[in-house]
Amino acid sequence: MPALSARLRPAAAGVAGLLVLFAAGQAAAGGLTGGGYEVTVVMPSAPNLVKGGKVEVDGADAGRVQSLEVRDGQALVTVSIADEYAPLRTGTTARIEWKALLGERTLVIEPGPASNPDLPDRGRVEGSRQRVELDQLLAALDAPTRARLQRLTQNLAATLRGSEDDVNGTLRTAGPVVQALGGIAASVGRDGEALKSLVTRLRDVTDVTTTRRQDVRAVVADLTSLTQRAARERSSLDATLAALPGTLRQATSTLDRVPGTVAAADPLLRDAAPLAAQLPAVSADLRPLLQDLRPALQDLRPTLNQVSVLLDDAPRLLDGANAVLPGLTQLTKGALPALDFLRPYTPEVTGWLANWGSATANYDVYGNYTRIYVQAGPASVLGSPGALGPALGDLGLVKTNPQRQPGELEGQPWTDANGSPIR
Questions:
Q1: How far apart are CA 326 and CA 311, in angstroms?
Q2: pTM of the predicted structure, to 2 decimals
């Protein structure tokens, strides 16, 4: 028994699908009544069209079937169209579409071009051949197949017995979905060639992708790395994007000033044109000089290397000089009072050094010797050192001061710390 149930599940699913489509077709029937404008649709046949059936114009519920009759082997379907969709235009066509595999059909009218003249009331519209009906499909089956299909239907009925309410609820809920799926299936049927071309191209793309699997893998890996790096640099990107408007405004301001700059540079370029014409001759004259300069530059390279070493050592030298100069400056400032004090006595110090130098500069075969001069005069004879004779002193022939103070020649005699002269 479980095996039988397993075999019946696919059949039950198929019949349930048929019932769903039938329920969708029944649910699609509306209550719109046509207006006073009527047309007659001429079709080879009109199976499953019924009086009061729905008529659609451009996909909208626009009217109802008023009557059906057969004349000269063709079906004449009289339909009424609502006032907002009337009148139709010449070139209008009609066809029967399946809203469900079972039950009534819908008459779909495609209006003619807007530039065509209006179709008069009770005018005729040509209809296209409808699709193959389910009963025609079943009639094409042979007897054994029909018998197996009948047994399948009976088994399906036995399987669904007791679950009618659930199935009906499912069908009522799935009606709009199945209706939409029917529209999608119809669209797929009409666009079969385009879908076939799309699938063919998709297969070609898949074949190329398969043959270049390694390249695709490398591209995906690079894309992953790029995405991860962009995620890590998100803050930088945010800052860059935040600064971008200001940068663009600055660039716009700069570009606005470019025409004026170009206009100002244009006369300068015109004036420079003669000079540019002379540049080739100058370049030709410079070429020998540059060739002769190249060996000199080669010889200069060691000097430049030494200069580089010197420049490397120069900061340390300057640092050391910087450390010494403050102390030297302080020492110089401290020595200035002593130098100011000794400056008036420079003649005496210099004379003393010169006398001692001249006294010890004599040289003979025995070596250096010192010569001492003894001066004697009237003062020595009179026994009064420093006192001149009255005659010479009175005459003013000799003026001497054997006890002159240091610095007296400069008018700055040597004094002690209290300003008193030397005693």
A1: 23
A2: 0.30
